[in-house]
């Protein structure tokens, strides 16, 4: 039988899970609702069981599960100190899954796992010093220096969305003012568009991107998001000197409408030093699951297999 | 004979050198002018020779020299890729010293070496995740995560003084606008005071601190420096989650007039997370030399001796 793992990415609204085999092929994707607390744990458990059976029918032997989640995650103990959207506090997520499932389970941080995956088989392959800026509903970063992911003293590193970009600026849902996230997150772009221009209905950042060049309000709101990102990347460049900054998450789906303007702003702001290279994520929304799979394989005797994975391959049923 | 090293801290105006013996006692301090280029190299060489003789007369055997400098420093090769104030570009500083002196020479970055020293025997003892903010004429940082100093892809990490704190704010001598350094460096505080209040002569930040509570302009300029530092520390807290931030350099001589206000500002700005601990440097202006001594001993068979150093001891002649 071929070795495999189940990789699970727990989000604030959805749990995404898939089987990844030892050759690095992702298959059998399933999703479930994430309503927080014990419900989300039950959904994760059920997805892992279902996918394990599907894998078995395919001749795959699931040896471990890898689970990644937002929040303050201690990968060493498998506990989640705090995850606001999921209602978890000092929660032993590993014990809640490993026991009932009878499987080894790794527990990791979603964005740091995505950073691990981008380095392993995505946009940051072969790069030892880079930052992945995950531009989702909120914004978080995976910071890699000298090949090592930065966790920080309390596993809280990477809160790039709450760097103060405009002191005393726009209120952020977090309670502070002027946070990067208040201008440039997937939730901020449509919120700011609606605030400036009540007439048109937009539900997401993609709608605003669709109006670029047509609607001056969209141009302005997007321009302000890009400029805030330029300041944020400028700050982390000064502090960390990365060779590369990868833009991921939903907002990165805007592609060249994001990458080009951020590059130009960054070059303008840095003045006396070269800008780090900017790239779009190549793993997209699956980055967290790829990271979870890499972390899960590390628990197994087949762990070395991940070194042979050279690019993301999905045959998802 | 007792083993010793010569430790040299090259600054933009002064070279400071001392002998440090294997018991961690610093002695025989000497300084010389730093006018850049080959002149500074000659001064460094001469200080090392003089101190080596003084040490020998004291029964100390100088086994190596440690030299630290600002700029883009590659410690592995001993070269300085760029140091603007010293006029060095792709300069093999180690070769320029080690050959003529017939001594092993370590070459390091001044602020990173200071960070190493604060961790070894200063304010950051026993702390694996911290940032040293060196508030001198300019501002630079030593970033330590999981016990490792962050160098970055091009040895340019730690340029904390040029994080953009106020977008499109005050012009910085570097050519950018709104840099932390434009508000809170040792050079910025008296410059901003003079710009606001031509009547009174102040030559340094200490003069402005001396006017606090007496001169409302001093209060305002200092308050703005403190607030800019609060934003800077808030940003690096979000990104790196340090347990501790050490304030060093000339401005830290202000003591409680700096520490208390920065602490209060930081607590106010962070809102939903605890602030990292803030401390003043305990090694002060000697931090770079202590770091140079630690790096120099690492080149010798006596290197293990530094583990026994528990606090800075200076008997300087």
Structural commentary:
The structure is a homodimer of 317-residue chains. The first copy, chain A, is of the alpha/beta class and 317 residues long. The first copy, chain A, has two domains: 2-115 and 284-315, ATPase, nucleotide binding domain (Nucleotidyltransferase, domain 5, 2-Layer Sandwich), CATH 3.30.420.40; 126-280, Nucleotidyltransferase, domain 5 (2-Layer Sandwich), CATH 3.30.420.40. Helix content of chain A is 35%, strand content 26%. Chain A has a six-stranded mixed sheet with strand order 8-4-1-2-3-14, sandwiched between helices. A five-stranded mixed sheet of chain A has the order 11-10-9-12-13, sandwiched between helices. A three-stranded antiparallel sheet of chain A has the order 5-6-7. In chain A, strand 1 (2-10) and strand 2 (14-21) form a beta hairpin. In chain A, helix 1 (37-57) runs parallel beside helix 2 (93-101) and helix 5 packs antiparallel against helix 7. The longest helix of chain A is centred in the C-terminal third of the chain and has 25 residues, at 216-240. Chain A is globular and about 55 Å long. Chain A binds chain B through residues 128-129, 141, 143, 145-146, 148, 150-160, 162-167, 174-176, 227, 231, 234-236, 238-244, 269-273, 276, and chain B through 128-129, 141, 143, 145-146, 148, 150-160, 162-167, 174-176, 227, 231, 234-236, 238-244, 269-273, 276.
